[in-house]
Amino acid sequence: MAGIDAQTGQMLAGFPHVAQSLDKLITTMVGERTMHEWVGNPGTKLLGESGTERVVLAWVTVIWVLVELYEPRFKIRRFVPNDIDRVGAIDFTIIGEYRPYAHLSWEQAELFVSVVDGAVRISSVR
Questions:
Q1: CA distance 65 to 67
Q2: Second label for 109, Cα 20 to 30 Å away, from 21, 46, 65, 86?
Q3: What domains sit in the chain, N to C, each tagged with a CATH number?
Q4: Largest Cα–Cα distance in the chain?
């Protein structure tokens, strides 16, 4: 699977394409992309909140679900917190497995992820 590098416009393939996709999933708000309005991180609503356990768990859950739904070529194994402060700054490393051919037998999930009142909700699109 190949794509276009968002910075240079050149062809992008392999793990660099997966890394770019993960970056776009985590940093894009829902509804921000023109042709893929449903793709994005509903957890951006949590930005600016205190770094409580509830907020950190919600953020990690949203990221895990987004990657499971929209990037089959990467399987998250664990999150390693590097730094979390009470102000809300969170720094963590995502450790996972690169699966270059996982998208070939993948069907798009019919789920929607949202954050409502700090709670992560997963519901059917239908």
A1: 5
A2: 46
A3: 2-124 (3.10.450)
A4: 42
Q: State whether the Cα torsion 18-20-25-31 is positive or negative.
A: negative
> Could you read off the pLDDT of 7-56 as tens digits, one per residue?
888 998 889 998 998 998 888 888 777 777 777 788 888 877 887 888 88
Sequence letter at residue 3: G
In this structure, the strands spanning 111-116 and 90-98 are: unpaired
CB atoms closer than 10 angstroms to residue 103: 12
Per-residue buried b or exposed e for 72-96, using 16+ beta carbons within 10 Å of the residue's own CB: bbbebeebeeeebeeebebebebeb
